[in-house]
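Inverse folding, one chain.
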């Protein structure tokens, strides 16, 4: 049994300590915005924030997360989809299939907290998520548009 703080809510998860955080979030808590992609922390579809840092939840066991740590999923980034990154994503038609986008947005949100005005090089270094559709140019434009709104997370 694990107690987690997800999107500001305390939840109890009855799962093996070795269960990846991704599956606790999706299967036990029912928040399905965080996606399974590769299962080896390469693609980034499973990216969530853990105490403000972007982490790949598919390889992070429940036993490594304490109830004092704050987990934020795409559902918790903005309850109504008005986070500047989400607004920019819609305005610029960033996603094609959209599968990677929740993880991509979560990685971008963490970057903007660290670097509110990132350069292209900052974005290239920080956003290592894989997009099978290849919308990287629009991802970069979306991050720059959101950064122009003056957000800090």
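Residues assigned per position:
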């Amino acid at each position: 049994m694990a107690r987690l703080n997800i999107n500001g809510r305390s939840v109890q998860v009855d799962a093996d300590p070795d269960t990846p955080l991704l599956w606790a979030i999706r299967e036990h808590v029912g928040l399905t915005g965080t996606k399974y992609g590769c299962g080896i922390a390469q693609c980034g579809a499973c990216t969530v924030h853990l105490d403000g840092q972007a982490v790949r939840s598919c390889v992070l066991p429940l036993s490594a997360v304490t109830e004092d740590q704050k987990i934020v999923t795409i559902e918790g980034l903005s309850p109504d989809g008005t986070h500047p990154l989400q607004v920019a994503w819609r305005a610029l038609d960033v996603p094609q299939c959209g599968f990677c986008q929740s993880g991509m947005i979560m990685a971008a949100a963490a970057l903007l907290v660290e670097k509110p005005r990132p350069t292209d090089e900052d974005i290239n270094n920080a956003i290592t998520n894989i997009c099978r559709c290849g919308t990287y140019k629009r991802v970069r434009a979306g991050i720059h548009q959101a950064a122009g709104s003056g957000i800090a997370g």
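The chain has a mean pLDDT of 95. The beta strands are 2-6, 9-13, 47-50, 53-56, 70-72.
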